[in-house]
Write a structure and sequence with these properties.
Largest sheet: 2 strands, antiparallel
Strand order of the largest sheet: 1-2
Distance between the termini: 37 Å
Number of strands: 2
Strand content: 5-15%
Order of helices and strands: HHHHEEH
Shape: extended
Oligomer: single chain
Amino acid sequence: MLRIISGTDFAAFSKRKSLRLAEAERSVAPLLEAIRERGDEALLEYARRFDGHEGPGFAVPASELERAEAGLTPEFRAAVQLASKNIGEYARTQLPRENFIDLPDGRRLGQIVRPLDSMGAYIPAGRYPLPSTLLMTVIPAQPEARPGVELQV
């Protein structure tokens, strides 16, 4: 729903929003610092504290993946596979490309694109888990040129 508000009301709204953002940044700053300093050890500590994580690490055992896969309906599986295909195709159109130009004075300018070896993603799964968040976060991050690396659904 749209409504028109006065400049004064907008200024008050904008200020409240800025204050909430600053408060949120202050709240997470110690967590981010701990993660920078202690890496996965800190992540695991926070996953246990905030999410109730009980495992020894972040890798999901194959048996748990197989059990979850067995519980998917054929319709859900088909929908996720179609979404995965579409997201992957679109993500490939957005990949940065290596680009070079040779200038008349002999200089060569450009960029080299090097993918990361690995990445981590936090996918919230509270009251209303969204498979789309997983798909749209993880699929574009996957290496395009490495055969055999794909999201298994």
